[in-house]
Design brief:
Helix content: 25-40%
Number of strands: 6
CATH topology: Beta Polymerase, domain 2
Largest sheet: 6 strands, mixed
CATH architecture: 2-Layer Sandwich
Strand order of the largest sheet: 3-4-5-2-1-6
CATH class: Alpha Beta
Shape: globular
Structural class: alpha+beta
Number of helices: 4
């Protein structure tokens, strides 16, 4: 079982840091899926957002890592998608960030796939 190093930051706090990183670079349609009560879930939370271009998607991913590290000193356990910049996944074990190009997000529809999860939408105008 993989384990996060810094247990001083709860998975709920970590998911808020991820969302903050998304907001910093104008991530769109930010959704937090609370998977804690979903049987066989791979994490406590998924935090999902969309970007308009591969450049923006890359910037959002970098911003997530910067915000999380700055406030918690946690590095990602695993990352993928940085080369293609269409779907970047940043895995913090308990929290997984998904940064999608808009059309790809619709195609994979994680919100529907994990439909049993509690869904929270973030108001981007509050940033």
């Amino acid at each position: 079982m993989k384990q996060r190093k810094n247990k001083e930051v709860s998975s709920q706090e970590l998911c808020q840091l991820v969302a903050k990183g998304m907001l910093e670079k104008k991530g769109q349609n930010i959704a937090i899926l609370n998977l804690r009560n979903v049987k066989n879930a791979v994490a406590d939370y998924f935090v999902i957002c969309s970007g308009n271009s591969d450049t923006q998607i890359d910037a959002i991913a970098d911003s997530i890592e910067e915000e999380v590290y700055k406030l918690s000193k946690i590095d990602p356990w695993h990352k993928e998608g940085k080369t293609n910049r269409e779907w970047i996944l940043i895995d913090y074990v308990d929290v997984v960030a998904h940064v999608f190009k808009k059309d790809l997000r619709k195609h994979y529809d994680l919100e529907e796939l994990w439909g049993d999860a509690e869904l929270t939408l973030i108001d981007e105008s509050a940033a």
